[in-house]
Structure formats: structure tokens, C-alpha cells
Design goal:
The complex is a heterodimer. Chain A is mostly helical. In chain A, 55% of the residues lie in helices and 0% in strands. Classes of the chains: A mainly alpha, B mainly alpha. The interface between A and B is large, with 93 and 85 residues.
């Protein structure tokens, strides 16, 4: 048995008393409050309508990561980062699945003639989203979390509904554009909330490629490829 | 009836647990105090910041292990301590200001370069979409410059009014050899890649959330400029047939297969051409 005196707020050297122990429960609660008091809402990035640069809406970095239960840092950083990683992975599952379905439909002749550049785009984008999914799942499993294998249910339902209407390449490209814009906006919105340097760099590096997918799709669909002065977050998805 | 011996046993156990907790907490607090780094008077070195964050991560891991060993990992104090240790070292306003000044310097150079390109006859009188792209992109970079300059001032820094010296030298050296659209596209792509990579790399170094959101949103557009330039470069390399496809709307059926992938050669952007935070800082 440890005979070390237990300090209390009642005075110095209080010794081993039940009252002393119960007093220290208050100290434990204060410790939890220390973590909880910084659990302010994650900043949001306002939609940059027109030429207005975005704002995070807060001068503090996101503390969703604090969450009252910060895990020891791993490649994925705090639990907030891991939550973001899991959601990002689910979006990548959706992207891979949707491009796969589009390629299957094209191969089956359901989309009519498919230009070589469009086929190349779909194949490349699918493989890049797969690589992104693998990276996020690597982050998650390294942190002891399960790999994500399912897309976000509501968004999947929306995409499935839209895909059912696709009858040609233009429709498929339009659907791909929607997905890529959602992906790019979601990463953009997440970046200011991430705590781990690795997570920020990974999200940023994927955001770049998704934004580039958007530009090429806009061009292929006959639109100006870089219409925005500042990338926007208004199409960002969130866990439902 | 109260079971006195059992109660005494429980009290003894709780006292032992508390003593263990206090011992580990004192060690952790001591380590936390050692982690306190005075804010340097000079502009912080990114390596110094990285070292601080690495040290924090290692300390957090050690503290978590010892707290877990004492059965304390889920306790309130343990949670609070780990959270405090996990907080990244404050990159600090001076670092953020440097980063924004460097970004401003790159935007200044981009504006000047596109302006110079628009003065070249094969751009001014060449493919109308290429010309429009140069005009629109120049305007966008102008807006980026203003936004970065404003954010610099918001953080209390001095606005950078000079183009990035390092790449200005590259542009000036390249200008005399610009003989056609391909050369201009290549130069512009270089600058866009530098900007994209710089913003990507510096995102993780910024402390201020608003600055981070701004930089990410600008990065999201610079990388699209880069994508377009890569695609245009590939089409220009295809001669007249390729140049004819640089149109809005284009004839997608005639685009070469490579047009579907040339704009994004890798699944992840590697910030290999990133400028360090201090490169464009106001001296």
C-alpha cells in the first residue's frame, strides 16, 4: 500500500483521508473541463460567392479534434482528424464505385460512343480515387480504426438516383463533375479543421487533384475550366 | 450492516489509485513545463516548429503509455493533459505573416508574367481561348494578391509589394527565348506549380485558421490553372489539329486520349516546388 499523503484543497499535508480522496475527484472533473472547454464548434468556411475570399469564421483552429478524448498522435493525429479521415475515405469509396459503374456502363454500350479522352479520364480518376481511399484507410488502420468500405448512405442514394438518369457520356460526365465538386469542396472545408500536419498535407494533396478533375470535366462539358476566383466549400458534404 | 473491512479495503485501493495518479500527473506536468518554449524574438524557423511538434508527439505518447499503465488513460486529468500536450506548437503570427508575404510575392509575379505574355503577338493574336485564359488568370491572381495582402495586414504584417525575387529571375531569364505559345504555357505552368506546391506545403505550417482557409481556397484555383496549362500544352504539342481543340466548347470526340489524364499525372500532388515561408518575406 502506498502511504504517500494525498493533498487536498483543505490545507497542506492532509494525509490519507476519504475526504481528501473525494476532494480530488473535483480536480479530476476540472481536468475533464480543461479538455471540454476548448471543444468549441469547428470553424466553417463561408462560401466564397463571386470574388469574396473565404473565412474560416473563427480565429481558432478546429477543436473538434480535442473532443474530450484526444488519442495519442498517430499518422492520423487526433480523433477529430481520424473522423475526417473516415468520412473522406467514405467519399472516396463513393467516387471509386461511381466511376466503376460508369465504366461498366460504357463498356456495355449503355452510354453510346465514348471519346478516348473521356474513357481515359474516367479510368484515371477512378484509380486516383482508389489511391486516395487506400491512403485514408492506411491512416485509419494505423490508428487502430477499421478501414472504411462503405460510401455515405445518403449521398450514395443521391448519386444512384442521378446515375439512373444517365443515358450518355455527357450525362455521365455531368455526374462525375458533381461528385468531384463535392469531393473538392469537402476537402477544402476540412483542411482548416485538421490538426495533424500529415492529415493536412494529405487532404491538401488530394484536394488539388480533385479540383483538377473538376477543371478538366468543365472543359470537356464545354464550360470555362476555372470559373472561380477562390475555391468554394458550398458543395461540401458532411457526415449525416 | 456496514461491512467495515470491505470498506477499508476499498478505501485503501482508492488511495493507492490516487497516489499512482498523482505520481504520474506530477511527472507529466513536469514534462509539460519542459515543453514550454519561449516565443522566439526572431522569425521562427520551420524546422524549430517541426521539432517542437515532434517532441510534443513523442511526449504525448510516453505520457499516454505511463497513464495507461496506471489505468488512468480515460480519467479526466489524463484526457486534459494529453489534449494540452497534443496542441501543436504555435507557429505564431511571424510565421503566418512570412507565409502570406511569400504568397503575395508569387501572385505579384504571376500577374506580371501573364501581363507580359499578353503583350506577345502570338498570344495577343493567337488562339482566342488561350488569350482569354491568360486574361482571366491574370485577374484571378490579382484578386489572390489582394486577399493575401489584406490577410497579411490583418495579422499585423507589412504588405509584400515586390514580386518573388527567385522566380522573377527565372522569368526574366526565360522571356527572351519565348518564341511561341508552347514556351509561354511551359513558363506559366512552372509558376502555377510553384504556387500550388507552396500553398499546399505551407497549409500545414499556418496557425491562423482564416489564413489557412484562404490559402487552401487559392490553392484550389492555382492547381486548376496548372491543370489547364498541362492540357493546353499537350494540345499545342499536337500542332494545328491540337490547337484547334483549344476551344470552348471543344470537340470532345476529337480530343486525344492523353487529354483525359495529362492534367493530373499523379494521384497526390507532391509539393516538390514549394517555396519556403521566408522566400518572399518582407525584409
Amino acid at each position: 500500500m502506498n502511504n504517500e499523503p494525498i493533498p487536498t484543497t483543505d490545507g497542506p499535508g492532509a494525509g490519507s483521508t476519504r475526504r481528501g480522496f473525494l476532494t480530488l475527484l473535483g480536480v479530476g472533473a476540472a481536468g475533464a473541463a480543461l479538455a471540454a472547454c476548448s471543444n468549441s464548434p469547428a470553424p466553417t468556411t463561408a462560401a466564397a460567392g463571386g470574388s469574396a475570399p473565404p473565412s474560416s469564421g473563427s480565429s481558432t483552429t478546429s477543436t473538434k479534434a480535442m473532443g474530450g478524448s484526444s488519442a495519442p498522435t498517430t499518422a492520423g493525429g487526433s480523433n477529430g482528424d481520424l473522423d475526417t479521415a473516415a468520412f473522406a475515405a467514405s467519399l472516396e469509396v463513393l467516387a471509386v464505385g461511381t466511376y466503376g459503374a460508369a465504366l461498366d456502363a460504357a463498356t456495355a454500350g449503355k452510354l453510346g460512343d465514348v471519346p478516348p479522352a473521356v474513357a481515359e479520364f474516367a479510368t484515371t480518376a477512378k484509380s486516383q480515387h482508389q489511391a486516395a481511399l487506400d491512403k485514408w484507410n492506411g491512416v485509419l488502420t494505423s490508428a487502430g480504426k477499421p478501414a472504411v468500405t462503405q460510401p455515405p448512405a445518403k449521398l450514395k442514394a443521391t448519386v444512384d438516383g442521378e446515375f439512373a438518369k444517365v443515358t450518355d457520356v455527357k450525362g455521365a460526365a455531368g455526374l462525375a463533375l458533381m461528385l468531384e465538386q463535392i469531393a473538392a469542396a469537402t476537402y477544402l472545408k476540412a483542411i482548416p479543421t485538421l490538426r495533424s500536419k500529415d492529415a493536412i498535407e494529405l487532404a491538401g494533396s488530394i484536394n488539388v487533384v480533385d479540383a483538377q478533375h473538376v477543371a478538366v470535366l468543365l472543359f470537356v462539358l464545354g464550360m470555362y475550366p476555372v470559373p472561380d476566383v477562390f475555391a468554394k466549400t458550398d458543395k461540401a458534404a458532411s457526415p449525416s | 450492516m456496514l461491512n467495515e473491512p470491505a470498506l477499508e479495503g476499498l478505501l485503501e485501493e482508492s488511495q493507492d489509485l490516487h497516489a499512482d495518479a498523482m505520481r504520474e500527473t506530477r511527472r507529466a506536468l513536469q514534462r509539460l513545463a519542459e515543453l514550454h518554449h519561449d516565443v522566439p524574438l526572431d522569425l521562427p524557423d520551420p524546422d524549430h516548429i517541426e521539432a517542437i511538434n515532434t517532441e510534443r508527439q513523442e511526449t504525448q505518447s510516453r505520457v499516454a503509455t505511463s497513464l495507461a499503465g496506471a489505468g488512468l488513460l480515460t480519467a479526466g486529468i489524463a484526457t486534459g493533459l494529453l489534449g494540452v500536450i497534443a496542441s501543436p506548437a504555435h507557429a505564431d503570427k511571424p510565421m503566418d505573416i512570412q507565409i502570406l508575404q511569400t504568397a503575395t510575392s508569387l501572385e505579384l509575379l504571376a500577374v506580371a508574367t501573364y501581363e507580359a505574355a499578353l503583350g506577345l503577338p502570338f498570344i495577343a493574336n493567337g488562339n482566342p481561348v488561350v488569350k482569354k485564359f491568360a486574361e482571366e488568370t491574370m485577374k484571378q491572381h490579382g484578386e489572390h494578391r489582394m486577399a493575401f495582402a489584406a490577410q497579411t495586414k490583418t495579422l499585423g504584417g507589412k504588405e509584400q509589394t515586390q514580386p518573388n525575387a527567385k522566380y522573377l529571375a527565372v522569368v526574366e531569364q526565360t522571356k527572351p527565348s519565348l518564341a511561341g505559345p508552347a514556351d509561354v504555357v511551359k513558363l506559366a505552368a512552372t509558376l502555377e506549380e510553384v504556387a500550388t506546391d507552396t500553398y499546399l506545403k505551407n497549409l500545414a505550417l499556418l496557425d491562423d485558421s482564416d489564413s489557412k482557409a484562404l490559402m487552401a481556397s487559392v490553392m484550389g484555383v492555382e492547381c486548376q490553372h496548372l491543370a489547364v496549362l498541362r492540357a493546353v500544352g499537350a494540345l499545342v504539342a499536337g500542332g494545328d489539329a491540337g490547337i484547334a481543340l483549344i476551344a470552348i466548347p471543344t470537340d470532345a470526340a476529337k480530343l486525344p486520349a492523353a487529354a483525359g489524364s495529362v492534367a493530373f499525372p499523379a494521384p497526390f500532388e507532391e509539393p516538390n516546388m514549394a517555396s519556403p515561408p521566408e522566400e518572399g518575406a518582407v525584409k
